[in-house]
Design goal:
By secondary structure, the protein is mainly α. Helix content is 53%, strand content 7%.
C-alpha cells in the first residue's frame, strides 16, 4: 500500500487573515481537506478500515469514501450539473461508502483527491460566488449558490474532521489540530 493520502502537518493550506471572499473560503476548505488527509496519514489498511468506537460504524476509510461522494455530489452534480453516479453503491442503489471491510484505501484516496482537484477547477472557473447549483431530489428542484456550497463543505469537513480526530486518537494516540 502506498501512503497516497499522507500529508505532513506543515503542508496544510494556510488560511489568510485577510483576503477576498473566494480566496478565504477556498483556503479554509483546502485547510479542512488537508487536515483530513493528515488525520489518515501513516496508517495501515487495517487501521483505516477499523471501527474502534462502537457502536458507531465510522472508520477513517469510510469517511474518505464519504467525502469523495460529498465532493462529487456538491461540485460535479449540483454545481456543474454532471449527474455522475455514486462511486460505491449497494446492488439496490443505496450508498455503500461506509462498507469498508474489503475496501481499497489507495482507490478511495485516489478518488477523493481526484474529486477535490475537480472541485477546485470548477470553483476557480466560476465567474462569481453567486453562480447557482441545482439538484432535483425528493423535494423537487433546489438551488444553492457556490458561496453556500463552499460554506457547507467547510462545515462538512469540520464535522468529519472531529470524527477523524477521535478515530485517530483511539487508533494510535495521535492528536492534533
Amino acid at each position: 500500500m502506498t501512503d497516497a493520502y499522507a500529508l505532513a502537518d506543515a503542508a496544510r493550506t494556510e488560511t489568510p487573515n485577510f483576503g477576498d471572499e473566494r480566496a478565504t473560503l477556498t483556503a479554509f476548505l483546502d485547510h479542512q481537506r488537508d487536515t483530513f488527509a493528515w488525520k489518515c496519514a501513516g496508517l495501515t489498511t487495517e487501521q483505516l478500515r477499523a471501527r474502534p468506537l462502537a457502536p458507531s460504524a465510522l472508520s477513517l476509510l469510510g469517511l474518505a469514501r464519504h467525502l469523495a461522494e460529498v465532493e462529487r455530489g456538491w461540485f460535479r452534480n449540483t454545481l456543474n450539473n454532471e449527474a455522475r453516479p455514486g462511486f460505491w453503491k449497494h446492488p439496490d442503489g443505496s450508498f455503500a461508502e461506509f462498507d469498508v471491510d474489503d475496501a481499497d484505501p489507495d482507490e478511495a484516496f485516489a478518488v477523493w483527491r481526484r474529486e477535490c482537484a475537480h472541485a477546485r477547477e470548477l470553483v476557480a472557473a466560476a465567474p462569481s460566488l453567486d453562480v447557482p447549483g441545482h439538484y432535483r431530489g425528493p423535494h423537487g428542484e433546489e438551488s444553492w449558490s457556490l458561496r453556500w456550497i463552499l460554506t457547507h463543505m467547510i462545515e462538512e469537513y469540520a464535522r468529519h474532521n472531529g470524527h477523524a480526530d477521535l478515530l485517530r486518537e483511539h487508533l494510535d494516540g495521535r492528536t492534533g489540530e
